[in-house]
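Weekly structure sync, notes
Attendees: PL (lead), two postdocs, one rotation student
Agenda item 3: pending single-chain targets
PL asked that the sequence for the first pending target be pasted directly into the notes so everyone works from the same version. It is reproduced below exactly as submitted, 626 residues in total.
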Amino acid sequence: MDLVALQEIRWLGNGTLEKMNCVIFYSCHPVKHVFGVGFYVNSRFLSNILRFEPVNYRLCWIRVRGKFRNYSIINAHAPTEDKDDEEKDKFYLELETIYSQCPRHDIKMVLGDFNAKVGKEESNYPYAGRNRLHEECNGNSYKLVQFAAATYMIIGGIIFTHKNIHKVTWRSSDGDTMNQTGHILIQKKHSSNLKDVRCKRGVNVDSDHYLVMAEIQARISMNKTHKGQRVQKYNVQCPEKEEVQQAFRSKIMELNEGTSANEESQKGIEKQWSICEKITKEAAEYVIGMQGPPERNDWFHAECAAATSLKSKAYKNMSDKKNTRWAREEYQRRRYEEKKIRRRKKREAWKGLMEEMEEAGRQKETRKFYREVNIIRKGYKPRIGMCKDKKGNLVTEKKKVLQIWAEHIDELLNGHGNEDRNKGDGEGETEETGESLDKEEEDKEYEADRNLEATDVPKKEEVKAAVDKLKNNKAPGPDGIPSEILKEGYKYMENRIYELIVQIWNEERIPLSWVEALVCPIHKKGDVQNCENFRGISLVNIAYKVMSIVLYGRLKPHANQIIGQYQCGFREGVSTIDQIQTLRQILEKTLEFQIETHHLFIDFKTAMIRSTGISSIRQCWNLVYH
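Predicted structure, written out during the meeting:
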């Protein structure tokens, strides 16, 4: 199945959940585990999804790319018959609103559980076929027929001839009452696209509802997708063992001494770094190895799998024996046992996690303790493999998703999106807007640069101190080498790495691989499918950090000569707390002496201040000043 509409998901909030072979789009109640609707989308069909809009816990809709026309499919879960008319009218009013918001030229379909038993009254014929299960309508069916009439749709589930057992969409727990309450509606002018609609009783969805399947005649465009490879990480916990450390040292020394004379003769920066990287990676792969895939649902053992298998067999047996009393009771018993075993396994898993947290707290293993606390505090967060473009359309194709993210990161760092727009505003106003430094400030900077004394190449002690300053448990860069492995291997490659740093210092250029970085998007707030709500963190190679620490140590004495006294952030011995204290003192004195004050608070959209935004800041200041 490529696309399935789901009801009563009973999750929280809305979003997407990505699995190995499918993606689930859901729209549920924000607080309670009740109701909830969504769509199951097969992975091979995902590239045809154009847009998904969650509305509330009863309504959502999705847009699908078609060969001739696109499809707008609305998933609905109507109130039951015992609800008051006010709630039902509100539901159908929202349904009509969503229907009107769908693109005009799309083929519109509405499907879901409407709790409506459409009878064989003659007045329903223009909007429903004659092959109906029920003789009379209930209250919900009148509202459904009225909606179909107002939107020129037809109830497609009852226009095809089938046996009554293939019309039933809901069965009571005792097996005596059967209803046809799930329906599929399609625009009347496109009703010929439906080839067949019937229920599938053999699908075990662990519910009292049967799966209703529709076959559509119009072809849906299919795109081939290629699965990527999971990025593997080194098992950095192994070097903590003494025997592993000894084996790693021996392998590093063996590879270092086995470097060919031809490779040694090539003294280029690129070649020298490639040798260091090759030795480190080969030793790490041979001795330490890679981390395995993360274990998911560690409580789901063979006992749970066996209970699920017995329940599935009981369900199939119940369907084959036409829902006899014995088969029905056997299925209910197996279902109860499966849920009981799963609940017990979950409780045992949570109890074990709590005991591990308690033990980590007693042993003062802070990192392990807070990692397990975050597992409970943050809960499960699904992966996001899709995004929205600037027009709000959902993009699922991997190449287009990567292109949108690349444009967003480029605009975030370089400001290309606003550069051309603000270029005309700043012409002829350089001095007023502050987009460039005054001549005096430029002269001061030039003099400061000239006064910087010529420095010698770094010493071995500096490079060793820089390596020792590297922090453990940090994410590696594109080369995949973590700081723990580099620090352990540096002891036996000290001369080789030091020669590389000196060569970089003299030639004033770095290896090309050091220029690359892995940009990890961090969600701030808002819609997780909107790139504007993310900020990027760049992960560079650990070896590049060694060179950066050396440069930082050389530039640190000259920083106070260039940076103004107003800069308190990211300076040693100075904090923004000093600035806050100064502001508090000013406010207290102005309040004491009744002096009028003006406050200007600027909240930048990003942490990086772009030059194109200086004019807006100056305009705000002039407005407050005057």
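Discussion points:
- The longest strand covers residues 71-77.
- The domain at 3-216 is CATH 3.60.10.10 (Deoxyribonuclease I; Chain A).
Action: rotation student to compare against the earlier draft before next sync.
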